[in-house]
Amino acid sequence: MRLAADPFDPAYSQVAKGCKIFVNGVEMQHLLSADEEAGEVERVKFDTAGNVVIDAYGSARSETIRGTIRIDLAACEFPAWLIGFDTWMRQRTDRAHAEFMARTSSLPSAT
To answer: How many structural domains is the chain composed of?
Structure first.
């Protein structure tokens, strides 16, 4: 899946502003786009003082980060019809199942 926050990007979606995106398990902020298949995100670039890096034309610079990308639509606060009900339900179900298995796999056996 590919999402972009830029309305001029073909992958633009309102969902991009409301879901959580992880790179190698770490949640990322200030993203412009994320692509799970390509394994990269593009985000606003900051200097060591935490300020946005501006180019010679007055635009914010961006940087590409590569790794294992996960777009979590289940954490999205948008309505299911906006993000696609099937995708939304699958991610919520998968997350609930994983939490259940983690919780119950360490319980002692009743035998």
So the answer is: 1
Nearest to 28 by CA among 58, 70, 84, 57: 70
Q: Which amino acid is at 98?
A: A
| pTM, 2 dp | 0.62
Element spanning 93, H or E: helix 85-104
Q: What pLDDT, in 10s, does the model give residues 54-97?
A: 988 888 898 999 999 988 876 666 565 565 667 767 777 888 88
* Residue from 82, 3, 86 nearest 37 by CA: 3
Residue 109 lies in a domain: no
Which range has the worst mean pLDDT, 2-16, 37-51, 54-68?
2-16
Is residue 111 in a domain?
A: no
In a domain, 28, yes or no: yes
Question: Does residue 110 fall inside a structural domain?
Answer: no
Residues spanned by the domain of 82: 2-104
